[in-house]
Amino acid sequence: MMSSAVPGPVYLDYSATTPLRPEVREAMRPYLEDRFGNPSSIHGHGRDARSAVEDSRRQLISIFGAENARLVFTGSGSEADNLAVLGFARAHPDGCVVRSSIEHKAVVAATKALAAGGYDVREAPVDARGVLDLDALAARLPTDPRPTLVSVMWANNETGVVQPIEGIAALCAERGAVIHSDAVQAFGKLPLAPRKLGVSLVAVSAHKLAGPKGVGALLIDGEVELEPLVYGGGQESGLRSGTHDVAGIVGLVAAARIAAEEQEREARRLAGLRDRLESTLVSAVPDLVVNGGDAPERLPNVLNVSLPGVDIEGLLTSLDLEGIRVSSGSACTTGSVEPSHVMRAMGREGDLARNTIRMSLGWGTNESDIEYVLERFPKIVERVRAFA
Prior knowledge:
Residues 10-373 form the Aminotransferase class V domain. By secondary structure, the protein is an alpha/beta fold.
């Protein structure tokens, strides 16, 4: 393999966050400068800002293919998840929430808080591939007709494994349950059709698809009753009070629009780069295990591997020193040497659970980046193992 020098660090942590696309920055710029009004103000500046928010709302609903649905802008994907889960529980105090064992910590923490207060919370397991077990989910759904929310992420943030949303939706329709899906990682990377599948609540975030940090959204399709988490001026139809981040909202929609236009082409490109990265590392690094590699479908940009016999912190540091930016598990668990709950849910133990690395590609990743990683990664692993 030829030596592949790159001009700067190779960033392979797009599942944690993404660089802002120049087109998105330009779309936001007017609302950071001259068009700075508060959408709640009745004068011209306010009306201009309010028009931008409502136009953005219509565009995002259209991208979802869910005309006339409701859409609430939030401060993050985590807030959108919390609004779905806690908002449902507050509106249905006699209800039940069933979540998968691999949900994002926003959902895990929210359901733990509900359970601590006596709410009926149940957990459905995944198999060794990281795929939700539909029979186990069916067994955990209440047999009585009480309001039930099923929370299953569209694609996992650590492994990239895509969940069987169509089968889950069919089961929930049969049992009268409402579906919430954290689509933060899937949005912009997969062709989502929540209305067609019957998914009523969908959470997304801007900074995972080349938009700004600090803005997300929750699609609410159908007659789903939620209670707000934030009270105040009654913005967002009373479901999320607080002054709108107009520039952020415009940036979210600009990024979503670009992602939708490029989705099919970019998915093929990233899958090709990811597959080359995966196949070469499997051949070059002894004992490397691909987590979720045998699942029916993964996001095209994510590779999660376990490396037995490696000091994971030493490996991450060594990679960083050589300009390779990756993460251990998900961004929300980085900094901890404990295995992630996702790896444990998949039955991983010991080194296979603890020594995991996620490499995630994005719009700025190119062939030179992959060549650089393939040249250096095996040597770095060998060196770190020798010191272990």
